[in-house]
Prior knowledge:
Mean pLDDT: 95
Strand order of the largest sheet: 1-2-3-4-5
Structural class: alpha/beta
Number of helices: 4
Order of helices and strands: EEHEHEHHE
Low-confidence stretches: none
Amino acid sequence: MNINKELTGTALTLTVSGRLDTLTAPMLEQEIKASCGDITELTLDFQELQYISSAGLRVVLGAHKAMKGNLVVKNVNEVVMEIFDVTGFSDILTIV
């Protein structure tokens, strides 16, 4: 998994590529925790994300809670969107 970071004022976009699973989820969690204090908006760009496991879902949910709803997930592919739908994440996240 790779994470590209783009900070514009207090808005942070993290572009995640590869697989977000048990092995890689801690990397994203660490990046979000390190940045959360300074930002008011967080965007997770999943255009190049191939797969998300329950560990990845946990990190996304944690980010959603930490940002108090100021989290947007964008460019979600069909595989990841199906996982969001089945788990109910599509009902609580802002997905564009």
